[in-house]
Amino acid sequence: MTSRRMGFSDGARQWVITAYSLAFGGLLMLGGRLADLWGHKRAMLVGTIGFAGASALGGAALSSGMLIGARALQGIFGAMLVPAVLSLISAMFTDTRERAKAFGVFGALSGGGAAIGLMLGGAITQALNWRWTLLINVFFGALAAAGILRTVPTPAVDRARPRLDVPGILLASSGLIGFVYGLSHASSGGWTSTGTLVPVGAGVVLLAAFAALQRRVASPLLPLRVLADRNRGGAYLAVGLAVIGNFGMYLFLTYYLQTVLGLSPVQAGAGFLPIAAASVIASTQIGPRLPPRLPARAVMGPGFLIAAAGLLFLTRITPDSSYWTVVLPGMLVTGLGLGTALMPAFSLGTLGARPEDAGIASAMVNTSQQVGGAMGTALLNTIAATSTTYLRGHPGQATEALVHGYSTALWWAAGILAIAALAATLLISHAPRTRPHPETREPCQPDRTPAAHN
Which tens digit of pLDDT belongs to each residue from 37-66? Predict the structure, then answer.
């Protein structure tokens, strides 16, 4: 059944994407807190099974409303699943070297998943139809649930766990949804439109009220001690900024590969595989080897700068550029830099958090990614559109105008990654503890600043 037969308008097609991102971004903090209250295993199982069920509902959708509702359900259960996974890694791997390896694998899967998903989704759509891009999640969900049941330990019951902060949930979720929606609207409606200013303003007010509330309630949704640690706070900021740059690269190179170079969706997805490979190599081979030996900022700062250099190389694209001589080298450098820098950033986002705060600390890593992605969409799309419009007044320069817009946005993305490097260098102070007898086989333990014990 085609989208036209299902009654899709252009707005409805946009909501297929927006419904997921709003539900996911708005409920991440709740999902993280549920992981703390229920335990990682239960939260992961509920999230996995719920996500698979929502995917089945979407694959069987008979109308646009049904599909949009299924996508929103996917976002809800995804918001429960992702923080539980990250906090489980943090809880299971406390040794510095093992923790670095575990977060390296997590970073590799996160970085490589986007590129592989683009290619796999395009291939499934061409070979079968769009429904199978959702239905295949049922198979993956069954495998994941079996793995969780078999490998994840069941936590001991802790009857002292605090109750949910319902007012905080309502304020945080509605504030994040309003803020993310407003930023998403800015990419199409402009920064000064009512559809942008009203939800962004409402989101800021609600989030400010949420922050004030967290100081007074006995069991806050987001204990402010989670943000007070400079290493965790610096990691959240650096991740959010880095996602803006990374998102800009994927967004505009996707446009460039398909619109300008004329590649099919499958070919464009395959074109991103090298950056996935570079990210995997950096996350598993480079990133894990450095944190036990160097201060975190000495890994993250240069990593983000290398990624920025890759984006600067990509600004050389023209309507006649070759994928092999411009796009591929730029993507490889960007992937190596981001893979190296994001691995310790993910680790620091949960390092030193109390066991009862591990889920919400993990959720803040994902929340920073979601907010960064929304800001990247709005900011970089606006920059690209403005630059494109500037050149469109000249006859015969439509393609040149598009590429100029993409290139200008990539310049800005590189600058934002440079700011991420600066933030990591100035804010993050974590360093591995130097042991008096390095010949011992016992692995080094991380040096936790006093704030990490908050």
Answer: 888 889 999 999 999 999 999 999 988 889
Beta bridge partners of 432: 446
Task: Output the pTM of the full model.
Answer: 0.82
Q: Compute the distance between CA of residue 100 and CA of residue 345 in angstroms, rounded to an integer.
A: 11
DSSP 209-266: HHHHHHTT-SS-SS-THHHHSHHHHHHHHHHHHHHHHHHHHHHHHHHIIIIIS---HH
Q: What are the tens digits of pLDDT across the range 87-118?
A: 888 878 777 777 777 777 777 777 666 667 76
Tell me which residue of 242, 237, 224, 161 sits closest to 29, measured CA to CA.
224
Encode burial over 176-214: b for 16+ CB neighbours within 10 A, e otherwise.
Answer: bbbbbbbbbbbbeeeeeeeebbebbebbeebbebbbebb
What CATH number should be reported for the domain whose range is 10-152+221-429?
Answer: 1.20.1250.20
Q: Going by C-beta distance under 8 Å and a sequence separation of 6 or more, which residues neighbour residue 7? A: 63, 64
What's the whole-number mean pLDDT along residues 404-426? 94
Instruction: Report CA-CA distances (Å) from 142 to 57, 136, 146, 154, 383.
Output: 15, 10, 6, 19, 43
Determine the residue type at 278.
Answer: A
